[in-house]
Backbone:
């Protein structure tokens, strides 16, 4: 028997990503979001949603660029902080003890210490109400060699991304492998 | 030292969600997606990306509705199958041994056996290239009582959503709690 929980955003799982931008003064800033995801394969695009009140909002629009820095779970405290503090008041990079790295491809900074980074050119800004959805074309993905396997691919168990659970507001780590995609379903058909 | 992996969709983590719709003949169908996420808090909105070639594409546009059914990891085989097979050829619900439940709120079916369901009214369809992004307003979220805690909230450890890792194409389960959001970052500031 299913129970109605109302009209809300209790979807699971959601990501924990830090959106990087330069503000009007040229100061590097990051804010943490869970409202986002990949939205197209060709061109490769990612979407991140930001409230208009956030310091990041005019910054992304002005430079038509943002980055997505993916923290490993060892950076959960920093990720949580960057979702609460405002770049209008604080130098979040300094407070977190992290380093802003300038992208060569887009006009936005990323978090040097985080193991996975997406550099994005703003394609569209879609006002949905409380949030505006920024759709960015992914110009490059960069990863630390420490999270790559022998074949040069990202090993999720080394990357250890954080998963946010709306409702309980808990951060989770990655669990065990459940199966191989495009494979385990073949016994049913397809 | 970061290594360039090229312009692609290697973001982590991504969800494993089944998008439900009725086709032109009224047959209930589901397809699995990993390109999606919550995109607005007010109104509550979710985005799912679908290729134009998919059976789901005209179905969502015609009825201006879709559902998102969230499988627990025990349904990983079914979720994998529903991403490979086409509703144009197969009755996927029958093949998976799952039950289409008619939504009372929107003109789309959901997976009765899955523990968490979002019922969505189509707000926008944004053509991005290979994929079209469907933005839906979440009219209701429904959950099985078995995944709720004593306070009536979703317990992610009971829900056990699946996490997809692009690149390795592996499905993962949820791991351990890393910390409480809007809390563990306070020692830094904010």
Residues:
């Amino acid at each position: 028997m299913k129970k109605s929980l109302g009209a809300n955003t209790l979807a699971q799982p959601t990501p924990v990503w830090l959106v990087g931008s330069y503000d009007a003064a040229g100061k590097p800033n990051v804010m943490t979001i869970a409202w986002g995801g990949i939205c197209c394969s060709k061109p490769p695009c990612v979407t991140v949603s930001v409230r208009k009140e956030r310091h990041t909002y005019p910054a992304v629009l002005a430079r038509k660029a943002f980055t997505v820095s993916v923290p490993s779970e060892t950076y959960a405290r920093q990720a949580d902080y960057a979702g609460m503090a405002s770049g209008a008041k604080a130098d979040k990079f300094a407070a977190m003890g992290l380093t802003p790295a300038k992208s060569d491809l887009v006009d936005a900074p990323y978090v040097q210490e985080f193991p996975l980074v997406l550099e994005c050119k703003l394609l569209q800004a879609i006002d949905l109400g409380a949030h505006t959805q920024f759709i960015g074309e992914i110009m490059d993905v960069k990863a630390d060699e420490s999270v790559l396997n022998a074949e040069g691919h990202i090993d999720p168990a080394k990357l250890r991304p954080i998963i946010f659970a709306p409702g309980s507001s808990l951060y989770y780590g990655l669990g065990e492998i459940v199966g191989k995609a495009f494979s385990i379903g073949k016994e049913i058909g397809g």
